[in-house]
Amino acid sequence: MPCKRCLLEDMDDEQALYALIQSRIALLAESDKVSDEAYRHRVSICKTCDQLLGGTCGQCGCYVELRAIKRSMHCPCIPPRW
């Protein structure tokens, strides 16, 4: 059963998927990414959200770590949490 309040990086059985997401993040241009501080702030908010389910967002179905790093993205909740 997936961990409901975990990001992919926190789940031992999802390390291959986490590695794939990290490789996608590495391909993004630096100008398309938020700062490390902003990223950590965003994922810390997501970790407390009741919509987080096994590393994905229950609102939109995205992988939270990938959405949180992108400068152009925002939280899909209404109202957005970040």
| Oligomer kind | single chain
Strand content: under 5%
Number of helices: 3
Strands of the widest sheet, in order across it, are 1-2
**What is the succession of H and E elements?**
HHEEH
Q: What about the largest sheet?
A: 2 strands, antiparallel
Alpha-beta classification: mainly alpha
Explained architecture:
With 82 residues, the protein is mainly alpha-helical. The protein is built from 3 helices and 2 strands; from the N terminus they run ααββα. Strands 1-2 form a two-stranded antiparallel ribbon. Strand 1 (52-53) and strand 2 form a beta hairpin. The longest helix has 13 residues, at 15-27. The chain is globular, with a radius of gyration of 12 Å.
In short:
This protein is 38% helix and 5% strand.
Notable traits:
single chain, 82 residues, mainly alpha
Element layout with pairings:
Layout lengths: L14 H13 L8 H12 L4 E2 L2 E2 L6 H6 L13
Antiparallel strand pairs: 1-2
